[in-house]
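Thread title: Can someone regenerate the structure for this chain?

I was given the following input by a collaborator and told the matching structure tokens would be attached. They weren't. Posting the sequence so someone can regenerate them.
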Amino acid sequence: MTDPGRTAILRAARKAFAREPYDAVTLRGVAGDAGVSAALIVKYFGGKEALFERVADFTEAAQLLLAAPNERLGEHAVRTLVKYRRENDQDLLVRVVFAAGKGDERAQIREHFRDQVTRAFAARLTGPDADLRAALITGQLLGLGAAIAIDRDGPIAAADLERIAALYAPSLQNLITP
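Best answer:
Regenerated them for you:
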């Protein structure tokens, strides 16, 4: 079971680092948005730099998304992404979209995403164009995550997980095993 305070801190920190330059983000501001004390952030993460590193880390996302054999990886990745969003009210990957702006910290988030997610998919793929196919896979997963985040009451939010996987996973699977 996850700690609600820790989850609230990470959610608030993701929003703060996505919207503001690193220097403008304060522990007090993150704490206020999370409804906790700044001391709790220090207790869990040690400080602003460590909190940013945690926000910029996609290792857990990659592990969750890639936890299936290649023959079922497309379906697994779709199910995992949608289920994680529904259970945690946050997305595994979408925070990288907010890192499209300028700044070293945003570049670091994009670099971590490439290294930890896209390259992890590429390492699993066989055949030609593995890097390109991996980038297309992560692009499709980002698109699904963004669609869910944007339209929280729309058809994807209301759809059965089985139906979403049946419709969306084949396009991913075609990139995994061409």
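The two ends are 38 Å apart (CA to CA).
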